[in-house]
Amino acid sequence: MLETNNTSAVPSGAAKAGQEAGAACSCQKPAPHFPEQVTGMYVLARALKTIGIDTIYGLVGIPITEAAYIAQGQGIRFVGFRHEQQAGMAAATHGFMTGKPGVLMTVSSLGFMNGLTATANATVNCYPMIQISGSSVREPIDLLQGTYEGLDQLNVAKPVVKAAYRVNRAEDIPTGVVRAYRAAISGRPGGVYLDITTPALGQVLDHDVAEALLQMPVDLAPSMIPAPESVDRAVKMLASAKKPAILVGKGAAQARVEDLVKTLVEKTGVPFYPMSMAKGILPDNHPLSAISARSTIMEDADVVMLVGARLNWLLSRGHGKWNKEGKFIQLDIDPEEIDSNRHIDAPVIGDLRSSLEAIIAGLDNVKMEMDPAWVSGIQNESKVKNAKFLERLQPKTVPMTHWSALGAAKKVLEANPDVILVNEGANTLDDTRDSIDMFLPRHRVDCATWAIMGMGMGSCVGAAVATGKSVVAIEGDSAFGFSGMDFSTICRFNLPVTVCVFNNGGIYNGIGEPLDKTTDPAPTTLDINARYDKLGEAFGAKTYYVTTPDEFQAALTEAVASKKPCLIDVQLAADAGKESGHIGYLNPTPLIDITV
Fold first, then answer.
1. 397 shares its domain with 315
2. 590 in a domain, yes or no?
3. Angstrom distance (rounded) from CA 44 to CA 172
4. Distances (CA, A) of 157 to 115, 130, 164, 575
5. 584 falls in which pLDDT band (50, 70, 90)?
6. Comparing 19-23, 40-44, 296-300, which segment has the lowest mean pLDDT?
7. What is the band of 439 on the pLDDT scale with cuts at 50, 70, 90?
8. What is the CATH number of the domain that holds 467?
9. CB 420 within 8 A of CB 463
């Protein structure tokens, strides 16, 4: 049985899955008469295509297999994964890269739960994303009667996403899609959950009735203009500062305002510090970059302007080493973010483009009073620290450390600035962020606000599919373990992605010992002898096993040039990397004696 009307043929296995789903929830309906009739799944595909969605990431099964085929028939690319969490990470990265919601499609129950991790992470990090999950019929769920995969998905999702909606009728699917899209991109972007019940997916409509439901929404992300008095206050505060600084967050990358950030920095001459995923909005080697002077900025700046950045834990919530007498200007689209951790002296509420345009225009009417010694001091400090830091990257030991391996990667990636860098791990994350300069916006993707592990392979796929550019992932061996099976997805879709696994045999390092001296491995121990390159071989990728910086540099150069799926196993020493994570000091009475 086939749905025509510009859709692809649906294999009998997919049709059978739909029948099983219907039987499982006691909602089997008469089959549509093609081509005059279609189902809710056709309506869903058409609604997504109408609003401009060209890619869906997901993993099929009851009740959405047929929907994925129909979406393909509508010209929407369906990128199938091995795990819903990675499909969700791909959708979130797609949203960050394009500014349009990435779409995740999952089955019900635990498939939905697997994907929800990524949707919650998208919400925290302000990535526009929509998770669409099929769900079982409502009545037995509401009465707790034990139906097939009978999870109340809408109410599970609500606390961790920006918005959540349920569709019970096929006629409401286009409205649900539009509402989800608007919620995902308007204001502060985030993850949105759209629950579509099996009866809605299987509901039969006349084709002309279904098509009449589709309309293109207008003004999906309207500008939010800041109040003139707030702009004036911020301009005067910045101009009067003796030691000002500009902190740029990934919100500025998301908003695509790199042109205005450049104008602001160069017009004022104020030093800037980019947060991790804001690296490249201005080149890291820009004369006014204060990346190497973070402590000085925190301790001495008298006015700090936050541009798409939040005073969360990544910035010590504005306390700790920060100048207690310093003042803050904050540009944000969400008024609830203001004063969340520290008093904000000059909030500017609006979308970043509108706010920056107004501030830059206002600067024409004031004179900057910045102390010239402030900028020269930061530049001199940066020069000394950068020279000293480069010494770390010189190879000194065999096997390699993180630093000597990164010295090799740095040469290749900085020679190929248009390659997107995906990065996660513990030491691997921190050291890569500090070592490798970025020169273009939205070319660094990492575990971001929550510092979660397990975004690597999904983000590689999302970045490559969304942009068509080459991607290099630098992964700790522990981090790679969360998502490594979806390296197969990279290979199946023949994406230009090179994955570098830094293997030091453990979480932090491979030399941990259990406290009680049992024969079990320590909690932080993995396998220093693991050969991750063999996993790449299993899926048909070009693979390398390297033990020296020269070997790594040669392998990475060749892999990037190939524009094919590649995996490089980078062998480090077991004692490379430092351990973190002990929080016993937070307890009044230590539970264990770690000196035993």
1. no
2. no
3. 10
4. 10, 12, 7, 41
5. low
6. 19-23
7. very high
8. 3.40.50.970
9. yes
